[in-house]
Structure formats: C-alpha cells, structure tokens
Amino acid sequence: MTHAIDSSLLIPARAAxxxxxxxxxxxxxxxxxxVVLIARGGRLAYLEAFGYRNREKSVAMTTDAIxxxxxxxxxxxxxxxxxxxxxxxxxLVNPVSTYLPELKNLMIGVEALEGGTPVLRLEAARREISxxxxxxxxxxxxxxxxxxxxxxxxxxxxxxxxANQTTAEFITKLSKLPLQYQPGxxxxxxxxxxxxGRLVEVVSGMALDAFIAARITxxxxxxxxxxxxxxxxxxxxAEALVDPxxxxxxxxxHNLTVKPNFLSGGGGMVSTAQxxxxxxxxxxxxxxxxxxxxxxxxxxxxxxSDHLPPAAAxxxxxxxxxxxxxxxxxxxQGFGLGFCVRKEAGRNPVAGSVGxxxxxxxxxxxxxxxPSEKLIAVLMMxxxxxxxxxxxxxxxxxxxxxxx
Length: 404
Known about the structure:
The protein is α+β, with helices and mostly antiparallel strands and 404 residues long. The chain is built from eleven helices and 17 strands.
C-alpha cells in the first residue's frame, strides 16, 4: 500500500469539514489533540494531526504520535489466536480448560437476598467456556470496573487489573472467582481477551509480546506497536488533558517506558495511526499485505461474521458502556471473533455499511473496516471521557467526504 496521500479519494471541500470539526474542538479545549487517518483501496486518502500531544507543555501533535490503544489490543490478540487455530494447535469449539486446566469447573455467581442483605450464591456452569466464547465475549467473564454487582466487587477485591501480576498469576486469580453469567448466554464485555493472551503463551510457548512481535507487528512493519515505549521514543507519547479540578490526568498507565509484568491481551498495547493502518489493511485484504499472507481469506471472513447465539442477551453494563456501538440486534449489529460487526442496513443511527467491522479503546482510539467501500478509518486520541461522541462523529465525517 502507498503512503502518499491521494486527494482524489475524498472530496476536498468535504474533507475540510473533518479539519474544521477537530480544530474547533481542540480550540475549545474539548480534546487535547487527535490523529485522523482514512484509507481507500489500499491508498492513503487522509492523514492529519490536530492539537497537542501534550497540551500543558504546548507540544504539538504529530502524525507519528504514540497512543495507548487499550481495547484495540483485542483484535490483535484475536488474530494471534486465529493463527494458532489455522495451525491446528487450537480448536474454537474446545473448552478453554483443554489448554488452561485451572479454568475447569468454574462456578456462576448469582445474587440473592438473605435477611435483606445481598449475598452471592454459587451454581454450577451448564457447560464449560469455549475458546469461541472468549473471542466473542460470551464466556461469562466480566470487567470489575464496570458496574457494582457482587461478582464485580470480587474482581476488584483481588485487583484483576494489577499491572504487577504475570499472565499466569492472572489466570490463577480468575480461576478462584465466579463467572458473571452462564457461558454462551450473555454478551458481557470483560477480561476474556486477557485469557486469550495467556492461551497464546501456553500453546505457542512464547510470551505474548514476543509472539505478537514475531508473527504480527514485526512482519507487518509496525515498528511503534507493542506493550511499552522505548525511552528514546517517550517524547512521542500523546497525553490526555489535565483535569483543572484535580490537577491530574485521567487514570491510565502513565509510565509507558517500563515493560509491564502483566501483558494484557485485552488492553495493554500502544500504537500509531499508521502502524494500525498496516494491521487493518491486512484484514481488509483478506489476510495479506505486501505479498505476505498472515491469515487465510476464509479465516478473516469467519472473524468478521456474527457469532452471537440467537438467544444471547447483552448485559446492562455493556449497553450503558457502548450504547449504539454495542452488538445489539436493534442496531443491526452482532459480534464476531474480536470485532463488532454490522449485519443489516438501517436500524443503526451511525453511518456504515453491511459487513463493516470495528472496535475501539477506552482512552479514545477507534477504527473500522468497511469492505464494501474498501475503506479503513483510524482515530487516535487520548480523551477517555468523551470517546463515544467521536466514534459516531468520525464515521459521519468520513462517509460524507467520499468522492464516489
């Protein structure tokens, strides 16, 4: 793919609306800055940097700025899993305990009242968690930080997000906690992909960061993508705005130059807009880039198809967290093996096409892939409090600017 910008792919006057919106929001102090990238047909259509990498120090944003991509780590780990599936080393239908025996015989936490006091009762799982459940978030594994039920409180009590734990220690802690839901019955966003990260390690015999570097980011030329930032490149890290009320930035990993013990497959990586374009272009191409095949065309198609069981519900906390970005039937969306996918025209209030697939990061990053338009868009931003607004906004701005 070419890195020169082809201005014929967007209508210039309409592309200018993207600039106007982001420049105004920087000026008004809504966001510190952003990098916006749009590609079509393997060619770069738009790449702009807005505002600041660090507003408090007046350091201007650059297109090579490095961002905490949080849950945009999940698609990369999902690809790693599917590479091992293609090698016959993992089967999607297998219980995860086939590979991680500690996760066998997990119990379900059910809240009940005893004398007016909420208590957690345990009941047996009707079946084991499959690898497919982990990829599509129907495992019953949750996130402790969203919501305040008793299972979520149990997650917080043992600090399941501890950056100092190892992936093996993470699995041991998880094995002693109840699931939030019966496997296969509810789409609940959680630490399923962190489990997949450990699965990759056990099956491959390599640390997660080493596997991703050897099989994905290295061959793709994603030189600025990984689980930490070399000290020599720390000046390129984009930071969120300081809250004037507290004098602090939002909670996040602030020392990215130190490699963490916990290689979080669910949210531990950093990247740049142009690096992430390499990854997404490979997926749009059906698993290839620059003559190298990473996944088969059929595997990518499988990943970008809806895998949710027809009767599966979406948890209340997930609905509140994602709103129109959730895999909700009323929005014509489902969830595949690592991505949310659009199944129907209409229903969804956000611009897009049937067959597009996407995901986002809690700190403000976002991408989508639209095969029918041969389009990729990547938003890199560090503004967690208002991230949802920009997901829908960029879709509108990108589609209205298309030249044909």
